[in-house]
Protein 1
Amino acid sequence: MPLRTTLALKHNRKLTRCTREIRNGEARLSVHSQAAAKLQRQMRRFSRYRFDVRIQVSVFREGLTTTCWGRTSELGMDGLGATLSGELQSGEVVSLEFPIPLQPHVIKLRAVVRYSDGLRCGFEFLVLTEEQKLTLHQVCVVLTNLC
């Protein structure tokens, strides 16, 4: 008989319950939880694209600017996911700097940490200029053609 645990996941202000089964020492989401996770991905405002580049993240805390490095995992018009060398807290406002495959070859954006799970974080971009929106759109088009 599998051991079941229930996880509460908060995504886009909705609470979703997921059941994780542990069988033969391996943890995996139940069929219902897998379907719920797939539905949440389909409900995103913007598509996500696989995007693996080095990223620099700076956060201002207690009068000091702290910088950490990491790798992105996905990019969309409204945000990105990354694994970092340091921990961030949900709600912190950060500066992101990462290379893109188009001119100007590096983009600098402000973002808020939407979730943080250890060293893995999700960021939502804040107040993008029209030029930044256009650049992100063009990058997403390029990434669509690469996948």
Protein 2
Amino acid sequence: MLIKELRWNGLLIWPPHWTEESPKVVEHGLLKSVEVLPLTDLIKIDAAYAGTILSGLIFSREEYQGSLYRKLKENIGKPLEEVGDLEVKF
């Protein structure tokens, strides 16, 4: 399944929920770091956009959290638009 098609409690998980509003970050930002937040359903990502680093949260389910984390980690440095089109197997 593509990352942008994954759901958490019926809601699409992609694009991430950003801590700051910036509509272009998903199209033009670059994935910089990925971290699973312990004891939660959340994956934190950082993205570079327009000279700044923005943080976002992705809700994930236990059944695919590990696969999603690994796929994101493997693609650090890639545009977020491409990341959303990656396939995750679980």
Protein 3
Amino acid sequence: MTRSATIPTKRSNSTPLIAGIVLIILALVIAVYVAKPGFRTAAPAIAPTPVATQAASVAPPNQALRAKETNFAFGSISMAAGKVSHRFWFRNEGSSPLSIKRIYTSCMCTTATFVKGMRKVGSYGMPGHGATVPDVNESLAPSEAAYVDVVFDPAAHGPAGLGRTERVVTVEPAAGEPLQFGFVANVTP
């Protein structure tokens, strides 16, 4: 009679190693988020639905370029859901034509397109980093309206971009004070 002995093979259990690696990565992500400038432990709540700050006409005295709203709150937006946009309308309230010289944004995650009637001009972004922002060189007749279509990409900064985000778009006329439009968003994964 022959007996065969079977010796059980030893399997490597890598579950604790994988769990450890995942915990380390999670700790690093949290550390980067907490170290982000402007981090607050008790951040003010942002409205869950878009809310616009409206005024009859917002502009400094003697300014021909006027806007109905200069601030907008996107509320909570998901990086996974993709880009969001908002239109900021403005008008030439002066008695002579007004030339729009430049449009630029405060961050590379935001772009702005000038739209007058059915005509779209450019996709303007942030100056710097070796890039220049081209001139718009479009004019608005007295009482003529136009808008900037502002697009914000919440995924542009990756995990470091989570939380409250504020950006500005500047419309610079050839003469007079620039008009600034701002928005705020609470970026979630």
Protein 4
Amino acid sequence: MLSQVTDVHQVLFRHCIPAESSSQNKKSPEEVIFCYHVLMKLGIILQSNKPEHVWNTFRLGITSLKAGHTVEVFLMSEGSELDAIPDSEYFDISKKVAEFKELKGTILACGTCLEIRGKKEATVCPISTMSDLLKMVESSDKVLVFG
């Protein structure tokens, strides 16, 4: 089974169920069943500047990072306006972005999308290209689009 896991994935072994705790298990109490959990790479494309969409994007990213997955967010279209979206009573976007980055989440912004909006740089992340987006899509186990 492990031979099927590619080097792109990380594998985490952890103790799951002691043999004596399973009534269906015929193994001796000294034996232990191990399971493995393949960590996922999640790619998220954020195309919205609506505070609730942005907030939920980073909430999912944070939850995924805390679960041990890797997460990359690519800001496109209106999503490239991330650094201009103010916090509100309900949506503490700057705190969520900071927490996402502290947990080693990656954020990239579409350079063309920024240019169209008259910006030369993004304050929250590096400028990227369609080639970078393609690499993210190709290397991700799952890709989600918000917005």
